[in-house]
Design brief:
Layout (H helix, E strand, L loop, with lengths): L1 H38 L8 E8 L4 E6 L12 H11 L3 E10 L2 E5 L15 H8 L3 E5 L34 E7 L6 E5 L5 E4 L8 E4 L5 E5 L5 E7 L6 H11 L3 E3 L16 E8 H10 L3 H16 L4 H10 L25 H15 L1 H7 L19 E8 L2 E9 L5 E9 L5 H18 L1
Parallel strand pairs: 4-5, 5-12, 8-10
Antiparallel strand pairs: 1-2, 1-16, 3-4, 3-13, 6-7, 6-11, 9-10, 14-15, 15-16
Length: 448
């Protein structure tokens, strides 16, 4: 009797396993069929496409199409940057200040991009520096990086999405230029206000435009006929020097640049009289970074991680460390060169992004991920995935010829999926490519 029972149990297990395999194969075939319609879309027909769809509950891929191939990911590069920031920056961003004696304070630049940034009204560090009656010193000895990243398009230097990186960023390292009509003619001014070198174009034009010189803070202003016009232009940081000039006007005292050794000993190694002044909650930086795909926040976040982990701000060193430690088990070893994805040197596979997103879910929890990643019709997903609001949480990426989307998706049956779709070398309008990908992702949610 027992033998018959065991035999029946074995048969049931075999049948159930067979049914699961059949169901799995059926799902793959159905998704493959849907994917073929997307791949044959006119906007994608000649493009290089990679798709990976993974179910974390079963640890199985539902579908892979060139999922192990390398692609330029554009701003999907912010996903590993976000992971590193969530893991190593703690709950809030901190600025180290050390009281050396009764008359002096020393603080070390740490790359925090929220300092005097218009998105952050509460400025704890600035308030601290304004209120102290001590002399203030700083150092950029930990800065081991260049203002522009490897592989960035140098001729985009005048555009606000490519602000310079620096050890002590202020105002997002951009100046807001405004032209408005006045009784005596157009009035042009900047925030922050400083003695920039400005030359006015004598020829009037229809549109207001500000053009900065490549390597110095010299600006050519073309006045337009608009009543009110604004333009954000990155300023040359000159390492830490431009920031010190701007801070002097804000805190009403001079910050003197020195090396830590002037106080004797190792500044970081001596914990006596050290204060860690918290500037902003970490997620208040990461959320806009992911929602509006803020390149500057991403670059400075990776540099802050580098400073926290290695004691220096350097992309190459921290990326090498992260790849050898946190990302050593990725399916394909990426080529990762910057924090934002501005560089076309970056190469990741769809399976890499699935693995990183799964790590983020497991280590930080889905609730936190849902707060940081935009959902349908939010941020860079505005006007896309309207019916998926609350069910899709994903990061977009766009460069010329590149469209990417990676994130989390809940199906109609409430199955959680992690997916990555990377498109390279398309020669269509980016909107058409996004709509084709949107149709595919919406189909996955609807059918499963």
């Amino acid at each position: 009797m027992e033998k018959k029972t065991l035999s029946c149990v074995k048969q049931l297990l075999i049948i159930n396993s067979s049914l699961l395999i059949i169901a799995s194969c059926s799902t793959q075939k159905q998704i493959s069929k849907s994917a073929q319609f997307v791949l044959k879309d006119p906007s994608l027909r000649t493009a290089h496409v990679g798709i990976s769809i993974y179910e974390p509950a079963t640890n199985k891929y539902w579908y892979n199409y060139q999922g192990d191939h390398y692609f330029v990911p554009a701003s999907n590069t912010k996903i590993p940057t976000c992971y590193a920031a969530m893991k190593y920056l703690g709950d809030s961003l901190g600025c180290i200040l050390k009281r050396e004696n009764d008359t002096a304070i020393f603080f070390l630049a740490n790359g925090d991009p929220t300092l005097l940034h218009p998105d952050f009204k509460r400025q704890v560090v600035i308030d601290y520096l304004q209120k102290t009656n001590k002399k203030v010193y700083t150092s950029d000895v930990n800065w081991k990086e260049q203002p522009l990243g490897s592989g960035w398009a140098w001729n985009d230097y005048n555009d606000d999405y490519m602000a310079e990186r620096s050890p002590l960023p202020v105002y997002g390292n951009v100046a807001k230029w405004t032209m408005e009509s006045g009784s005596d003619g157009p009035l042009v001014y900047s925030i922050p206000e400083v003695n920039w070198i400005v030359n006015f174009d004598t020829a009037r034009a229809k549109n207001f435009f500000v053009q900065r010189a490549v390597s110095e803070n010299v600006y050519k202003i073309t006045q337009g006929s608009e009543a009110l016009k604004e333009q954000y232009v990155p300023f040359v940081t000159n390492g830490i020097n431009t920031a010190l000039e701007l801070l002097r006007d804000t805190i009403h005292k001079t910050i003197t640049l020195v090396t830590p050794q002037i106080f004797g000993g190792n500044f970081l190694g001596d914990t006596l009289h050290v204060n860690l002044v918290r500037s902003q909650p970490t997620d208040s930086l990461l959320k806009p970074m992911m929602h509006r795909s803020d390149n500057f926040f991403a670059e400075q976040s990776l540099l802050m991680v580098s400073n926290e982990v290695l004691g220096v701000m350097n992309d190459e060193k921290i990326i090498d460390t992260l790849l050898k430690k946190d990302f050593k088990d990725l399916p394909q070893k990426p080529r990762w060169v910057d924090g934002s994805g501005l560089s076309r040197y970056n190469l990741f596979s769809p399976q890499d992004f699935v693995a990183i997103l799964n790590k983020m879910k497991n280590e930080f929890g889905l609730d936190r991920m849902k707060n940081i990643f935009p959902t349908g019709n939010e941020g860079t997903l505005s006007n896309y995935y309207r019916s998926e609001t609350g069910y899709l949480f994903a990061k977009t990426g766009t460069l010329s010829g590149v469209v990417s989307l990676s994130g989390f998706l809940y199906t109609k049956k409430n199955t959680l999926l992690i997916f990555s779709v990377l498109v390279n070398n398309h020669n269509s309008a980016a909107t058409a490519v996004r709509r084709a990908v949107e149709k595919f992702i919406e189909g996955i949610r609807e059918k499963y």
